[in-house]
Structures are given as C-alpha cells and as structure tokens.
C-alpha cells in the first residue's frame, strides 16, 4: 500500500511539475491603445523631513548660522570666553526676518573663537574647495577672521584667513579654501582677532561644487539622484509641514523668497513629532525656499507642483482652523504664488522673481490646496479657493486632498464631495503593508474614465514602521512595482504618482522607509528607488492593453503586468512582476500590424531574498541588470526570475 501511495505521489508531483512548466500567454493589443499616459506621470515628492533640506539637499554645512534657533547657541560653543560681555546676542526688531546677531567685544585684543558642530558633523572631501562667508558690521581696522576645519581627531584639515575692511553697515566677506582630508564628521572653528567691536551674522560654509555650480546652492549628488529619474513633476514643500502643528507653524511661501538674509526661520514640525526620534535641532532656514524649489523643478525637467495651506493646521495635532470670513489672506497667497511663478516682470511678484534671477516664468500649471485634510471644514475652505482660482486663473488645475487613507468613511465623504465639486485632481495617499499593494493592483480598473483625475501623491510599502535606513526592502519595492502596473494600466485616470518620503539621513531621520538615503558624504537609492526610476525613465506615451485570457494581469498566479507604447522611440514597453519564489514561463504575444525587431532590450530587478536592502556600505544589492531577448515572429518567450520586475523594450515599425 505504501508503495502505491508513493507512486501516486510521484505521479502527482510530475504532473504538477509539468503544469508549472506550461507557459502562460499574455496577449498585447499593440494596435488598440486605450488612452494616453500623462507626460508628467511619474514624479517625486519633496518634504523637509529626515533632514531632507537643512542638513541634506541644501548644502549649508553650518547649523544655526544666524543664531535664530529657539536656543540661540544650539550647534555652537565658545572656544575662548574672555571677560563678561565679550559675546553678546542682540535682537534687532528693525531687521526683517533674521533679527538676531552676535556682537564680539574684544577690547583686550584676545584670540576669541566659536566652534560649530554642523548637522551631525560636516561632510568634506579631500581636494574639494569650500567657501566661508559672514555678514558683519562695525569692524575696527586690523580685525580678522581665521577659519579652520577639523577632523574627528581635531587635526586641522583646511584653513583660511579673512581680513575685514571697516564698514558701518552690514556687509558680506568671503574666503575660499581647500580641504586635504575626507571626513563626514568635521567641525568648524571660527577665530576672531584684532581689537574692537565686531557684529557677525550668517556664518556660513558651503562646498564650491554645488549643483550646477550655484553659489550657496544644493548638494550635487542628491540632486543628481533626482535628475537621473527624469521625473515628470516635483511636488513641494510637503507634506505635513504645509499644515504645521498649528497655523503659526505652517509653511508660508512668501517668507521663503527674497534675500536669504531676510528669510524668517521656523521650527520644523518634525522636530518633536515622534517621541522615539526627537530632533530638537531641526529647523527650517528656508535657504531652500519656493524660488529654489521652482528652479530645481526647471533644472531636472519636472513640472512644479506646489501645495499650499488651506486655512487648516494638522488635524492630528491642533486642528486649528481659520474662520471662513478670514480666509482671504490664504486665498491671496495662492493668487500671488501664481503671479510669482507665471506673472510678467511688471507685476509685483513677477518682478521679485526677476530680481532673484529668473525673469522668465516658471510655467506653473497645477496647484495643491491642502494636504491630508478632511471633513466638511476642508470642503468649505476648498470651495472658497476653487471659486477664486477658477475666476482668476482657470488655466491652473487644482489638486485636492482625499485625506490620510485610501478607504473608509473619511475617504468616501471626500471622494464624493470632490467629484461633485468637479475638482481637477484628487490626491490619494496610501502607506500600507506589501499585502495591500499586491491586492490593490486593480484599484483603478473600474474608476470612471471621465472628469476627475487621480494623483497618487504619497505612497510607500511598509514592512514595519518606523524602522530605519536598512529596512527599505526588496519585498516592499516589489509590492510597489506590482501596484504600479495598475497605475500605469490606468494612466488615463491616474495622472501623477510619487513615492514618499523622498530623502532620509542615516543620522537624522524621523520617518522611514524613504526612497533615497544619505549621510554627510554619500547617497544611495533603495530598492524602491530602483523601481521608481525604472518606471519613470520608461513611461511611454500610450496605454497598451495586456491581458491573460481576456483579463487584466493583476495578481493571478502572482503575476502583474502593464504595457505602454513610446511613440517617439517606436517601442513597445512591457513591465512584468513575478511575485513568486519560482521562475515563471510566459509567452508575450504581440497583436499588431507593425513589424517587431528581432531582439528586445531586457532590464531586470530581481532577488530571491525579499528582506534584502541597499545601504551606504552596499548601495547596489538591488540594481538593474541589462540583457537582450529574441522574438519569434510576434512572440517573445521569456522566463521571469523569482521575485522580479522585468522590463522589455521591443522596437516595432
């Protein structure tokens, strides 16, 4: 009897194996596109969280450069004390934005000094040059500043001397100097010599080699990671910082433009948001302000998508509201922002843009009103904005929030209300486990094809949360890739999509996972970054149906697929996710009158270990591998690796 059972089990096993080897056929109706892909389909979402701006992409190395933190000496320490009254912090109410400055009284001609610790240290590179600058006034003749960069052993690795000319009003002095050693934990000494009284402010240190070589600009390697994605848009400045913990703490764009020295610093709302990741030194200096955001979008070929406060603070914090009859200031901010972005140079805000160095318009086409707001109070305020914007700027598309979750009573209420208002674009957010992303690949298959469009404005697959820089796993990324086949398949409904958050600093994060991780010197893309980049650089122009037995490929046998056609390159682009622990044989049958090339380009992201991550030490554990495949007539026979995202690009003429 045991022998009979063994034979039966063997036959069953062989039968199962034979079935597993039978290829699955996916039919691609190349000549029957179902819609257009938005030219800005795949983009990036920027928020100043996880030291994303100050201490991150904004390349300033000095923390609290203008003594404006709540604790004015945070980040600084005195190297020599001197007699009482040697160091005095003054607060001048007549100065715009930046009111505090330091007065140094050095009657005895002592060597006085300050040390700045930077943002978790300062990252400097051997052979690179750096520029120190300072705002100063009332310098007596013969006064000098000496600057030194020190490594972790307090060895001087770069130094310069800066003589100061006597001036009676605020002036800037600068000096450039090289560094002879690489370290991510340098600190800066600033020494003052010469007898007299000296007022100093905006003590600053930047690398010379910034993005596009702009003085006091952005960190080159971080911007390059964005540029490499070829994003269709960049959404800024957030996120929850748009709302603020209360309305006083909200993001106010007008305070982030104009001269850097006059921009008013505020505490970053992520400073104390999470008890497990308190960051008391996290502020927003707005060196990266709205002008710089628009410039960044232009630099990387992305459409600017600013989000503005709608008169509501974060509803998870204070939930403060502006009364409806006092909303005019908020609405005017939106109208003035459009003028700043698009207005001629003879308008007030267009002239400011020109004075800042950009007389040409930024071609703003979309504007978000509110972030993750909900309830009837949001709809009431949104209606006021919509009326004013539609009357004065009907060319601007309005993006509105559907709240914090992709389902439930809040979502249903907002979804119904926003559609009844005929809002242009609904912003949906989903932070969920991998299982949700896998099961939701068909989320938009039955959405109405007319009217309101969807912005998948924030999403990330969370295996655990919060975790840390090593936990942006391949499992999370692959589930996102599966979900994105559904976004792409429904590109006539889903106009835009962006992962969030964008950046995380390994020594200063509050939230994870994140798309790109940095320390003070290095940057790497997570597996999710590799997925996002693969989609964004291969978005195509037309949606092409790809089906299995007449149904969308959205999870049966753990296969997911989408297809697009790139009219400019005359290429069919197919994306297939195999979320199986075994390889899957598939026939891709192309139904078309066009003639396919004999070979196709193949790009694969794959690994059998779903827990694998990239890291500073191993940044390319998950990376694309390129190959070629051959077609048999109008069929490509391919075996997709276990746990893989595969892209196939076939030229057809």
Automatic annotation (TrEMBL):
InterPro entries from the UniProt entry: Alpha-L-AF_C, ASD1_cat, CenC_carb-bd, GH, Glyco_hydro_b, Glycosyl_Hydrolase_51
Catalytic activity: Hydrolysis of terminal non-reducing alpha-L-arabinofuranoside residues in alpha-L-arabinosides
Alpha-L-arabinofuranosidase C-terminal domain segment(s): 457-644
Record has Signal as a keyword: yes
TM regions (residue ranges): none
Single GO MF descriptor: alpha-L-arabinofuranosidase activity
Protein EC: 3.2.1.55
Matches recorded under Pfam families: Alpha-L-AF_C (PF06964), ASD1_dom (PF22848), CBM_4_9 (PF02018)
Signal peptide limits: 1-20
Cited SMART domains: Alpha-L-AF_C (SM00813)
Gene Ontology biological-process annotations: L-arabinose metabolic process
Lipid metabolism listed as a keyword: no
UniProt keywords, alphabetically: Glycoprotein, Hydrolase, Signal
Family, per entry: Belongs to the glycosyl hydrolase 51 family.
Protein name: non-reducing end alpha-L-arabinofuranosidase
